[in-house]
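not sure who needs this but someone in the group chat was asking about Monocarboxylate transporter 2-like from Parambassis ranga so here u go. i didnt clean anything up, its just raw.
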Amino acid sequence: MSPVPADELGHKPLDGGWGWMVVFGAHISIGFAYSTPKAISIFFNEIQEELGASYSEIAWVSSIMLAVMYAGGPVSSVLVKRFGSRPVVIMGGLMCGVSMVTASFGSSIIYLYLCIGIIGGCGLSFNLNASLTIISKYFLAKRPLANGLAMAGSPVFLCFLAPLNQYLLGTFGWRGSLLILGGLMLNCCVAGALMRPAITSCELSSATQKKVEQRNTDVKGRCRKNARKFLNFSFFKDRGFIIYIIGNVMFIFGAYAPIVFLSAYAISQGVEKYSAAYLLSIMGFVDMFVRPGTGLVANSKWIRPRIQYFFSFAMVFNGTVHLLCPLVKSYTSLVVYAVFSGVGFGMVFALIFECLMDLMGNQRFPSAVGLVTIIECFPMLLGPPVAGLLVDIFGDYKYLFFMCGSVVVTGGLFLFIMNIYHYHMLNKEKAAKDRQQNHNIEIQEHACTSEAEIERTEPEAAEMNRA
């Protein structure tokens, strides 16, 4: 079963107090980070008509944004270690606001790639990584619940932004909508202001103030040393980490394309535009309750030791829902698909970073999440454009859902099977280590016994020599 790593922070996290305000701030920043690339897909049809872009070309906008958000993880980790989460999130909020405002003046698809994809993706990266890191500083026992509440920001904001963007599109056009959206994203700066650094009990003791100052100096020295190294490739020596990253890459490749193209698919089935946008809201509304609920379930004594298997089940469930989507045609059936897709997506993203914390521990998590996000940027970058290319080639959305669902189900089954092997090997290695330790103890005891016998026989031999 999954071992829960010991806390290596040197102090016991508060598990409450101001930590819940930090969770609220993370809820806002993570909400914008994950919902924005999906919600702006409502503008895609209008942008396609004005700029003359194909399905695969317009899909690169969300794809580049998501890829840069994930690829910026190592840079964000270094900045968080050096400056803390608060200034990093504030800077990310400013970049997000500027990216949307400048994109509203775009006249080419390449310009949108630069503004929304690269600048906006960097801002979202700062928001995401810094928010996840500071939660691990404030929570340990209640960490799955805190992560679930913070990650619930994605469906909450998606539920709100999808109909809002459709309204703004009909009222102000896609340019005016991006301008207003940029102003809304400046609220990430307010969220960052809530993320004050965690204060430990030893820092509150005046008797140990000098030791604390010395420790802070050492920490800054270590941060400068770590800043020289963006990626820690020693994680690839960890079998559990390798299994996690392979399954995760497969999920990320197929996870976002069905959401990005859901509104367009519904419109192609004869659904009215506002009703098609509400499908994203329905998915987000369901996801909103599933994430904290999954956090509560994952925090139970029965599930937490088996959280990696729970994560595998969530992936298989999510992929199966995508595979069944092309079989439905009516709007009611699409609503049912949106509900179950929200359930599957919410379960996966409530567990995706908790499982990494479970494997790596609090101390190694900031570096590990940076490495994970930069690896995930490649499937994130390729997934939606490949799906859009299938639509361009076949003129039908069903192949998109078949491809994405198959990849996600395969990733979930891979995680389940390989985790069984991983924990079997862990138990086997632990047993071998215990046997080796017992053998070493026996050798030491035998050596001590031999020395004692020699000490007893030496006086007798001397007496015999004198006689």
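also Residues 398-466 form the longest helix (69 residues). if thats useful
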